[in-house]
Design goal:
Layout: E1 2-4, H1 7-24, H2 29-51, E2 54-63, E3 68-75, E4 91-95, H3 106-113, E5 118-122, H4 138-141, H5 143-163, E6 172-177, H6 179-190, E7 195-201, E8 215-221, H7 234-240, E9 243-247, H8 261-275
Parallel strand pairs: 4-5, 4-6, 6-7, 7-8, 8-9
Antiparallel strand pairs: 1-2, 2-3, 3-5
Helix pairs in contact: 1-2, 3-8, 5-6
Amino acid sequence: MKQIQTRSLIEAFAGLLGLWLLVRRVPDYASLAKGVNLLRTILSIAFSLCSLTLNAEAIYIVDKSRDREIPVEVYEAKDQRGCASQSKCPVAILSAGYGVPHTNYEFAVNSYVEQGYLVLAVRHEVPGDPPLSTSGDLYQTRIENWQRGAETLRVVAASMKKRRPDYDFNRLTLIGHSNGGDISAWLANQDASMVDALITLDHRRVPLPKVEGVRILSFRAGDFPADAGVIPTKDEQASLGICIVELPEALHNDMTDEGPEWLKSRIHKTLQRFSLGNQECSESGEANKIIPATSA
């Protein structure tokens, strides 16, 4: 298992560096004040890094029936003290966009590990797979990809259920970006009983499920529209509690760790609230339009 950052190491480094700077800049009050402000900045950055600390392990899950090795990044919940076979903790499975590394969504992963979730990030494309169709009726030509992806999610859940009996694999949170969101929506449409919540990051092809019992949140970027029928009507959103968050200044390909900080921060905060049961929508069912303060 790899440890990405450690809180104690960051705190110690920030403290020592701050003290060293203070000692060097203490000849007058103004310099001391500058040193204090610098120390505060260092500690603020340190604690921000600590909040993004993740324990991750790269594994492969073998699907013998399809002769397929599935790459999975396992992110541990930050607090596992309450997890037991008689009191299971929640699970989220994240599906990457086509061609995007499955480890490139840690801004979203962190939203859930902070709330006690085990998060599994899945790479769907493996050597030998046909390329994703880019011509014709994309809904029809990509069905094979979505079916294959949905089966991969089932296999991952079944395998990890045996390994981690302290987590609830019967009611999953599915998170997906772009084609990974299409895969997640496909599974939620086909087998809603195994899905507690569905979150998509600007998926565009597969209609969101219109069923009770599945909490739905979808972030919409401003550069490409979804296909007709993918997003439920306002009346359907209101009656089913579906939340559509419009991000008009966001770009489809920016909903990864490589995206701008304002976008990752807004999505991260919304996911945190959603994981706690807040649908992030008004009582009328209309989506909140989250507009960034800056497009930098």
